[in-house]
Amino acid sequence: MLNKVLSVCAALCLTADALTIETGSRAGQKLERVTDTAEISQVGYPQEAFSQKSYPCIFKLGNEFFDFTPFKLAQNVWPAYMINTLLPTESYQYEMGFCQLMSEANNSTCGNDAYAIGSTFDAAQYAVDQDFSKQPPTDCVPYSGDSSSDISAATIEKEVTVSLNETEVITGVAITYSGGTCASTGGPATFTIKAWCDPSISAADTEYNGEAYGDVCNPYVEIYSSIGGCDLLSNSIIWEYIDMGKPYFGFAAIGAGVMLAFFGLRLIKPSVCIGGFLTCVMAALLVFYAVYATSIDELATFYYWMGGGAIVGIVVGCLLAYCVKVGAAILAGWGGFALGLILNEAVMWHFEYVWVFWTTNVLCMIICAALTFKIFDHTMILTTSLLGSYAMVRGISCYAGHYYNEFTIIELLKSGAID
């Protein structure tokens, strides 16, 4: 029993200390801003990216993340100009940041507590000088409020012509600052940053022409890049379905985890049943993912498949209870998978290769399953401790947060967000 307790304690420590990183026309869907420092610090941003009122500029829609922080770190304040060719003296210029107040920015001309500012600009004088720096903003009219609630974001899309008979839809994200004052009328004003997704454009080659469009009171600028408007993770919608049932999955995971971690060997037949049940449920979800997982509208189908997998899993689990050696090998395989996840999140992620993730997991599964035929008791103690501890921590995370699924980490590796 002492060995069992020590194994559980070690597995819990490894699991808890591992790295903790979370279709159709969707234009207009609102995004949630990520401001939890425990969550965004795991993406790897330095402490200087944080301030009292500003955070890394990250938004999410379900399990999709849109990151504007690289723009902020590259240059705190970005200029934009709206040139009136008919009345050059009535042109305007703007300065905007990415979720950062002008008063906190390193290279801002104005010290306002605003996320964007506007000011008059003499285009006729610029035609002579050909130098923007000779006309810095002087009015410093705030084009937003100073509260984080004045920042909103939504998905956008537009159709563009790529050839004579071909068009394509480009998607992106629009950040809008509200609560401002118009530089020309003194009325309400907003400022919008439209970031269009183009995976072919690297972050270093981001396209931005510095032109402001729209009207003086509600201007917008456009950016084309592989970041910002592109989903950082492009993760499966299946995690959004699972996220909806977190309270129930968390309770089940904690219960199964406690039994496996502390009584896995003693209650070997019930433990084997859990292994068979888990295998069938995951197989059903795999089929659902391959065939049906297209949009959030498939929620009912998701639960049908998961329920069907659960029913089959109960039957298979009971049958495996009479074939303990085979069932134990399957259960040990899942314990090996948990070990592989822990190794990947704690160490192997440094290699930044997706194949390393899968190779580690599969090898751990095969080795642990094979060991049950040679060293049964010790293998079961180790693997059920690992699987149970992982299940407990995963279940607790359904309520406490900050421990995202490992397939999100795969996408972080693909995107280069982990370095």
Total E-strand runs: 12
Strand/helix succession: HEHEEHEEEHEEEEEEHHHHHHHH
In what range is the share of β-strand residues?
15-25%
Straight-line distance between termini:
41 Å
Query: Which structural category fits the helices and strands?
Result: alpha+beta
Major sheet: size, sense and barrel closure?
A: 5 strands, mixed
Could you please describe the fold and organization of this structure?
Helices cover 43% and strands 19% of the residues. It folds into 2 domains: 2-20 and 237-415, no CATH class; 72-225, Cation-dependent Mannose-6-phosphate Receptor, Chain A (Distorted Sandwich). The strands form 3 sheets. It has a 5-stranded mixed sheet, with no helix packed on it. Strands 4-5-6-7 form a 4-stranded antiparallel sheet, with no helix packed on it. Strands 1-2-3 form a 3-stranded antiparallel sheet. Mean pLDDT is 79; it is low at 1-24. It has 12 helices and 12 strands. α9 packs across α11 (376-400).
From the structure above, extract its key features.
419 residues; alpha+beta; Cation-dependent Mannose-6-phosphate Receptor, Chain A; 5-stranded mixed β-sheet; 4-stranded antiparallel β-sheet; disordered N terminus
Strand-helix topology:
Layout (H helix, E strand, L loop, with lengths): L1 H16 L14 E3 L2 H4 L17 E4 L2 E4 L1 H6 L3 E5 L8 E6 L19 E6 L1 H7 L11 E2 L8 E13 L2 E16 L6 E10 L15 E2 L4 E7 L12 H7 L1 H18 L4 H24 L7 H22 L3 H23 L7 H18 L4 H25 L5 H10 L4
Parallel strand pairs: 10-12
Antiparallel strand pairs: 1-2, 2-3, 4-5, 5-6, 6-7, 8-9, 9-10, 11-12
Helix pairs in contact: 1-11, 6-11, 7-8, 7-9, 9-10, 9-11
